[in-house]
Specification:
By secondary structure, this protein is mostly beta strands. It has one helix at about 50-55; strands at about 5-10, 20-25, 40, 45, 55-60, 65-70, 85, 95-100, 115-120, 125, 140-145, 155-160, 165-175, 180-185, 190-195, 200, 210-215, 220-225, 230-235.
Length: about 240
């Protein structure tokens, strides 16, 4: 995870060591009809009982919003899909390429750099520029013509960077070809139990998860996992 504006502190009050992972609230894609939205783990770590050990997990999250794209070298099902690629060639997932661009969301007034253009050969995202048709609260991505296979090889959406600059697609879809993809991300994150390595595709489920809503103005949330298996999230400065 990147060390920047947002922090989630996790303390385990159960008697057993637990794995916890972070995922982002699913983005909205208003330019698509009934999109199939996928989600990824943004970080995962284990920790023992806080009272006996004093140990806690610190997840650092970047407040910057990134547009992201990923191209797989071969068709895979969503359950097999790993939305993580490192920039270290010795650790990269074979035949998978990602791109990310810091981007600004559309505001009711002004002309922000709210849209990037996707290129496919090679994969890349252009320096963002203003696009008048992108809805308020969204960023846009101009998707070129391509031929989707029965299982998509191209995914686009919200990206995050971890601490070794690996690009993770946080909330993403298979885009429509030859169209402007609009994406409305929210800086709301959830913490729940389970082992889900960073970048692995996860089943999106907000139930029995701690909600850390950074849109409320808090920069830090402390998440308590109670002995009875429930969560408590408290915002701080």
């Amino acid at each position: 995870m990147t060390s920047s504006s947002y922090q989630i502190i996790v303390r385990n009050l159960s008697q057993t060591t637990q794995y916890f992972y972070v995922f982002q609230k699913q983005a909205a894609f208003p330019s698509l009809t009934n999109p199939s939205i996928l989600s990824s783990s943004l970080g995962c770590q284990s920790v023992g009982n806080y009272t006996s050990s004093g140990a806690q997990i610190n997840f650092g999250l970047d407040s910057q919003i990134y547009a992201g794209a990923l191209s797989t070298g071969q068709a895979v099902t969503p359950s097999e899909f790993i939305a993580l690629i490192t920039l270290d060639a010795t650790r990269s997932i074979v035949s998978t390429t990602t791109a990310a661009r810091a981007i600004t969301l559309t505001t009711p007034s002004g002309s922000p750099d709210n849209c990037t253009t996707l290129s496919l050969d090679p994969l890349g995202l252009s320096v963002p520029a203003y696009q008048s048709k992108v809805p308020v609260g969204a960023f846009g991505m101009i998707v070129p013509t391509y031929t989707p296979l029965p299982v998509p090889e191209l995914y686009c959406g919200v990206a995050a960077l971890n601490n070794d600059q690996a690009i993770i697609l946080s909330s993403y879809v298979a885009p429509a070809p030859n169209a402007v993809l609009s994406c409305i991300p929210e800086q709301i994150f959830f913490v729940t139990t389970g082992y889900q390595p960073p970048g692995s595709a996860v089943s999106y489920d907000e139930t029995n998860a701690a909600c850390c809503d950074f849109t409320t103005g808090y920069a830090t949330f402390t998440v308590i996992y109670n002995a009875n298996g429930t969560f408590l999230a408290t915002g701080g400065p």
